[in-house]
Amino acid sequence: MANIIQDFVPQGAKNRPGYPLTPTFITVHNTGNSSAGADAAGHATFIKSPGAGTTSWHFSVDDHQILQHIPTNESAWHAGDGANGPGNRTSIGVEICENSDGNLAQAEANAIDLIIDLMKQFNIPLTNVVSHQHWTGKYCPHLILPRWDAFIASIAKRQQERLQEDKLAQVPEWAKPAALKLLTKKVIDDPNGDTTFYRIITILDRLGLIA
Ligand SMILES: [Zn+2]
Fold this sequence. Notes:
Keywords: Cell wall biogenesis/degradation, Competence, Hydrolase, Sporulation. By secondary structure, the protein is of the alpha/beta class.
């Protein structure tokens, strides 16, 4: 999980309206800027500049960090559906950077982990993770829309992985391969136990008895 750095747009700025937000959706964007240096830090500078006008969003994600520009209990102007639009007023806006000097796959992976954290924090279902296009028809996130369903599926897959990682956190390294197989096969739901348990499952695994 990439580090999240809070670097808020000053209160009172045109693009920080201060409208209260209780997020029930997450809106995914691409920045639309492939210039070298148009990473999260570059967008943090931009969003605090007069050039941003009334545009804002909550998080910029690149391949190595996440910068937060607006608190998640305040609306940002990212969905293009106006001051009373449901996109702006019910969703957290996540911008995925596409700078040519960055690693897009890693930026997307970081965004997926952030989205999962936000879903958990605000109890938002995966069906409410939507594209910018969902609100206004704008072709955004332009790099992800051609494979939108696969992107959503990869969020679900990563959720499962993280669930398993959490369950395995206390299992000793040497017993993890066997515990992971038993979890994946749904033979057990809780992989935690005592040393005897870990030794038995590891022996079974080494004998090839856990396929
Ligand atoms: Zn967008």
